[in-house]
Amino acid sequence: MTDSASSAMDTRPASRLSSRSSLRLFLLSNEFGLLVLIIVFAALFHGLANGFLSPFNLFALGRNAAVNILIGLSMMTVLATGGLNLAIGAMGVAAAMACGWLIEGAGLAWPLAVLGGLALGAGLGVTNGWMVVKTGLHSFIITLATMSIFFGAMIFLSQGESYRALPAVFSDLGRARVFTFVSPMFLIAVGTALVLSVLYRYTVQGREMLAAGARPEAAEMSGVRVERTVIACHMLSGLLAALAALLLTARNGAAIPSMAGQLGQDWLLPAFLGPVLGGTLLQGGKVSVLGTCLGAFLVTMLTSGLLLMQVGAFWVQSFLGILLLLAVMIDKGRRSYLRRRNLA
Amino acid sequence: MPSLTRFVRTDWFGPLLACIVAIAIIQSVSPTFLSLANIQVLLLALAVNALIAFSQMIIIAIGQMNLSVGAIGGLAAIAFAGAMEVWGLPAPLAALFGLIIGLACGALNGLLVRISGMSAFVITLATLSIYKGVNLGITEAQAFYGVPQAVKAFGSAVIAGPVPWLVAPTALVAVWLWFMLRRQPVGRFILAVGGNEHAAELSGVSIARTVVTAHAISGLLAALAGILLVARLGVGQPSIGDDWLILSFAAPVIGGAVLSGGSVSVAATLLGVVIVAIITQALVLFSIDPYLTQVILGGLILAAVSFNRLRESRFIGRFGRA
Amino acid sequence: MNGEAIFEARDIVKTFPGVKALGGVGLSLMPGSIHALLGENGAGKSTLIKVVTGVHRPTSGELRLDGRSVDFGNPRDAIAAGIGVVHQERNLIPRFSVAENIHFESFGANRFKPIDYRRLNESAAEWLRMLDLDIDPAMSVTELSTARMQLVEIAKALSQKSRVLLLDEPTASLTSGETDTLFEILRRLRDNGTSLVFVSHKLEEVEALCDRVTVLRDGQNACESQSAEGLTRKDYVRLMIGRAESGSGWRKRDTRAAPQVLGLDDVASGLGHSGVGLSVRAGEIVGLYGLVGAGRTELARVILGQEPVTQGTVRIDGEAVRVADVSEAIHRYRLGYVSEDRKGEGLILQHSVLANAGVPIWRKLAGRFGFLSDATVRAAVLPYLTRLEVKTPSLDQTTANLSGGNQQKISVAKWLAAGVRLLIVDEPTVGIDIKTKAYLHDLLRELADGGTAILLISSDMPEIVALADRIVVMDAFRTKGSIENDGDYTTMSEKIMTRIQDRTPSGTSSGIGETARCA
């Protein structure tokens, strides 16, 4: 906020942002940066590792990216409120296991079981949101506790047993290919992302989520029902986590209690990587659906490429940690640049 | 009776009461609960779990959080075991090596939090993944079995009666932490930064130095917990630390720690650890599904934070925005 | 008292983006004196305090200590130079003992050397004794009353060898007994040679306490460091507001025939209001005047349904209603609220102009399933943004980048777009340049002429007198009757002050009865 800039503003009437500065803004955006990185790394891996761009690898990449994108979007919906959600993994696995039980234990048809799983995810999300709103505590500690509760209850009820006798439709979805190299799972993730884009840009509900996240006091004073909106954000998060876990179930051909690690913690890193790389603000109030998708895709691609280059799977985990640190630092630098230039 | 009121109002009175009630109930249902063998099991769990809780508590004191407590503990544990097996280092040197690694990891957390100005949550999530990856990359997920006999002996020896040697380091740490947070400027700085960062800074406290110090201590304590666990288990498991996260928060929170910082208590946290250990133990005694432990731990955290919140809101009402 | 100044500020200029907060201000502090720093909200007092205490660096100008030029890079430098400040927000460390808070500074020497609490307590006890305070130094500050916390802060500042001590509205949350104790202590400090700066809105306190005075107005000195001898409260008011008449632009408007939009009858609330009565008719501007802390903003929260009404009736359009929450107040009853806390509550600074102006009408504009496009919102709000001459490079501009005046225009425009019937305006012109201020005043009149009922909350008396048709006086969470405004500042300020100082409870209740009936 410099003097010269603000005085310049005062002399200009309300008009569209000049196209030059909007181009500059786009070039400085996370989305553009991620796109460049994806292209650069794709070329790099193509040159270094044989078969990186082979139809099968692209297909596998799409399947993994689908899950990572949904996990990232699930976190993003709660980051929009300025909170976070540690229980994503636990909610997702619980939903997938519920779906498995509904098919194998209760004998329901698979579409109903899938709906049941999604509903459980949404319900657990509502539980989180309700507690955050009613206690006024930070979502960190609430979701830390519910992560333990949801996961413990899931393991207790399932006794740690997987559901492996799922209908063929699950493994078919995991195996199917469109145009020889695209997984329908990837298309589901992209479709979900499109729906979310529309939600945040073109609906009252989405806009109110962002308003409530950016400045709850101001949003409330402008007529937004902040508490209800925050609960809705958590519900959306649960729904997306459930969808991610169901896709993972399709890929594995089974609902496995350990598919997100101890307490579902294995999902935490990808859940933050996508949104943070994509430029979603941790303080809330701003999300980037496209950025989250590109971020999740980049992460998936890097993982796949490094594995193809025979880098041990364990080191890849360290590498992703470093990537998150880098993203945070770069974001900090970029933001202070934008602030100095009075662009954002 | 002012001394009684004072006693009732101390931060550890509530947890102590909860502890005694829990013991009394369980003892009345299952008289074997306070048998010597059971007490020893309790104390062994306590020795490690208290350090895990302290490691998180010192970060809660500055109003932050540390997700990498378990990852640091695991890395220090395999460094300790690996140094003995692969390099043939004597146990004390290997332990020192593990502690230094823990200290360094913690200090790195603190530095990164300070430099980036980002929430400690994201930073320690990233370093959690880095430390864990290094751990697994080195061990390839295989345990170090070459832990010397002397170390294993230390892990199972008793001082007297049911009191194992393993509690000795933990007891020393508890006393040191208590002294530091009560009497030493460095400890008071940590609490001051958590209580009112602005006021602390105006009084000449270096926020950066204090934050890094707290994180370094956290890393050191996590490392010590990992090392003691290696002694108890007799193997250097790469998976050490994987299940510490919930526990590390549960005990301080049950002990009334204020998550926004500035108010933690060594005694109350210790009692929080005892409560968690008693309940876990009771589940075993009553042959309740051990899987339910997670549910109960989560429930305890929720109950404790809600209760603390009620207490704190009365306090904030009078103190203004603290 | 005569002699060299301890501390001087010369020709201090401080500019912020879009705003010149201080335009060449001077202040000179003598030892053994209590110096009043006066000015309306937005006159530049707090900016000057921040410059003096090292929070802000002046854009130009010079600070001199003992005749030598000094430069404070941060608040620590100012403290080290002997300039202490007791702010409104507490700068104590919660749960630490009184002694520790007083001497926290001295711990830095060795980080590991155990603290000798006995010596600490003894030394703190000395400072407390010096202030004649009966406080156990080992007690936790959290257990103290607000007044005593403040006194501990003074003790802390003195222990830091402060020779200049700034007190920023120290009496804002004190009872009159506590205030007397504080004044006694301040006088003793003055007699011991400390130079005190007293910032307050309460002129009777200034009259009772201060021997020198500086008044700021619109970022300039209305008077600089002159003796308070012979000056009366009237003179202060004149200096603060510049012109005694000041009721510029007021014109008589008759709304007696108009229907009542909002009526409060003997309302009590969970926030501590009791016996609140007022009425606003369509097209009427009712001023709600009171000192800081009188419960006016809180009353707005009660009307908007954010806080519960525990007793009495709230009528909207003559019908008794119970507003469940703010959302209902806005969407169902069409009330609007322009917050005094523009940056915290009024606007979402991080979001665009378009998003901010549109929030209250999103629901109204949305189609099926809540679909809504930018174009729809733009079409709905642009006329109002244009009418209010909001200056922004684009509607997509982040609101944080606009000047205070433009921000305030947006927070008014959004209610115009929403077509509210009652607009509650809370301190609308604090921190806003004169031109925009005059513009907003015209706008509020115009709005009222168009039939909108306006409840204007302000502690800026000239503003209230210039705008309101009637003035309701509020003190200590009660209304003290309403006064017809005749636009003459001198007589009106006189009348308002009499109402506020009238502490008899019987007078209060009769006042309310009157208001309630006139509704």
UniProtKB/TrEMBL annotation, chain A:
Domain of life where this protein originates: Bacteria
Topology of the protein relative to the lipid bilayer: Multi-pass membrane protein
Cell location: Cell membrane
CDD domains: TM_PBP1_transp_AraH_like
UniProt keyword Lipid metabolism present: no
Main subcellular location: membrane
GO molecular function list: transmembrane transporter activity
Listed InterPro entries: ABC_transp_permease (IPR001851)
Pfam families for this protein: BPD_transp_2
Keywords recorded for this protein, A-Z: Cell membrane, Membrane, Transmembrane, Transmembrane helix
Transmembrane segments: 25-46, 109-133, 140-158, 178-200, 229-247, 267-282, 289-308, 314-331
The keyword Ligase appears for this protein: no
GO CC annotation: plasma membrane
Name the record gives this protein: ABC transporter permease
Taxonomic classification: Bacteria, Pseudomonadati, Pseudomonadota, Alphaproteobacteria, Hyphomicrobiales
UniProtKB/TrEMBL annotation, chain B:
Record bears the keyword Cell membrane: yes
Domain of life: Bacteria
Topology in membrane: Multi-pass membrane protein
InterPro entries named among the record's database cross-references: ABC_transp_permease
Subcellular location: Cell membrane
Sample GO molecular function, one term: transmembrane transporter activity
Alphabetical keyword list: Cell membrane, Membrane, Transmembrane, Transmembrane helix
DNA damage recorded as keyword: no
Protein name, as recorded: ABC transporter permease
Organism annotation: Fulvimarina endophytica
Automatic annotation (TrEMBL), chain C:
Pfam families, per the entry: ABC_tran
Annotated InterPro entries: AAA+_ATPase, ABC_carbohydrate_import_ATPase, ABC_transporter-like_ATP-bd, ABC_transporter-like_CS, P-loop_NTPase
Membrane topology, as annotated: Peripheral membrane protein
Signal peptide (UniProt feature, chain positions): none
Keyword list, A-Z: ATP-binding, Cell membrane, Membrane, Nucleotide-binding, Repeat, Sugar transport, Translocase, Transport
Localization annotation: Cell membrane
Stated family: Belongs to the ABC transporter superfamily.
PANTHER family for the chain: CARBOHYDRATE TRANSPORT ATP-BINDING PROTEIN MG119-RELATED, D-ALLOSE IMPORT ATP-BINDING PROTEIN ALSA-RELATED
Protein name as catalogued: Sugar ABC transporter ATP-binding protein
Species per Swiss-Prot/TrEMBL record: Fulvimarina endophytica
